[in-house]
Amino acid sequence: MLRPAVLDKRRKFRRKISLQVQKILHTPIDIPPKMCRMICIPATDSFWRTKIMVKFTDGELEVMRILWEHGEMKPAEIQEVFPRSIKNAALRSFLTILVEKGHVTRRAKGKAFYYRAKTPQESTFRSMLGDLVDTFCGGSSEALLCHLLAEEKLSEKELLELRRMAQEERGESRSSGTSTNSKKGGKSKS
Predict the structure, then answer these.
(1) Side-chain-side CA neighbours of residue 55 (13 Å)
(2) How far is CA 153 from CA 44, 129, 138, in A?
(3) What is the pLDDT, as a whole number, of residue 1?
(4) Is 49 contained in some domain?
(5) CB-based contacts of 159: which residues, under 8 Å, 6+ apart?
(6) Which of 109, 118, 135, 152 sits between 20 and 30 A of 176, alpha carbons compared?
(7) Cβ–Cβ under 8 Å, residues 173 and 183
(8) How far from each other are the two terminal CA atoms of the chain, in whole angstroms?
(9) pLDDT, tens only, 62-100
């Protein structure tokens, strides 16, 4: 049996999904618990941007990379810069799926259709990185960083850059001579 706090969290999550679907469909709806896990709301909705796991197949991700890099394109243009040989039908299948998932928009111009990435590259990166951290590092970003530092042969310059970035993130001074105690108003040891 689940604890009351867990049940309450699930009820709140279910209610949030119901309200979001009502907003999209403009219809009152109560979603059963099993349906909450199966609903796919486009990742571009600002309320769900950080909540939805953006998952792509390898082919879909290749198409998204091209659209992020080149912007709006026709299928023939995408096919020209595609990293491997791909048939027109397969490319159009990827594009149709991406449009249905809400990651790509399509607009007609004359007889041609132009496709543009709708899901931002940064949110996709964050989502996929979060999935990686959860799956392989038990949800610990620190474990991921430690693994990367152990596996990658970083130069002294790269390590100093990482240290500088970490200090900036914590709001510390760029100069290594300033102690954190003196920044907080405390006395530094002399």
Answers:
(1) 6
(2) 37, 21, 24
(3) 52
(4) no
(5) none
(6) 152
(7) yes
(8) 59
(9) 999 999 999 999 999 999 999 999 999 999 999 999 999
How do residues 25-45 score in pLDDT, each as one tens digit?
A: 554 544 444 444 434 433 333
Q: Which two tokens stand for residue 129?
A: 């990185």
Q: Are 47 and 24 in contact (CB under 8 A)?
A: no
154 pLDDT higher than 90: no
Cβ pair 17, 51 in contact under 8 A: no
Question: Within the chain, what is the greatest distance between any pair of CA atoms?
Answer: 76
Q: Tokens 């596996």 — which residue?
A: 151
AA letter at 185: G
Write out the two tokens for 87.
Answer: 């048939």
- CATH number, domain of 88, equals 1.10.10.10
The whole domain housing 62 covers 58-121
Give the chain's domain count.
3
Q: How far is CA 167 from the centre of its chain?
A: 25
What are the backbone dihedrals phi and psi of residue 55, each rounded to the nearest 5 degrees, phi first? -120, 135
Q: Which token pair is 134?
A: 């959860």
